[in-house]
Amino acid sequence: MRVEILRPVMISGESAPAGSFVEVSLTDANTLISANKAVAAPAVAEAAPEEVVEPSPAKPPVRASRKSAPAPSPEPET
Question: Looking at 1-78, which runs of residues are DSSP E strands?
Fold first, then answer.
C-alpha cells in the first residue's frame, strides 16, 4: 500500500523522511496510519511508455520546373 509519511520514521531498517511517499505492506501501513505517522496515499498509475516516432527520411528538395517563356506571337502584318 502506498502511504505518505507525516513524521520521520524507520521502515524495515530504512529511514523515511516526512513528506515522502513509500510503498509498504498492508500491515505496516495500518501500523503507521494508526500511529499518526502516515496517511494513505493514492496509488500512482504507471505511465505508459511514450511512443517514439522516427522522423521520416529527408526528401530531396523539389526542383522548380523550368518553363520556357512563351514564344512571341508573330506581329500582325499591316
Answer: 2-5, 9-11, 14-16, 21-23, 38-40
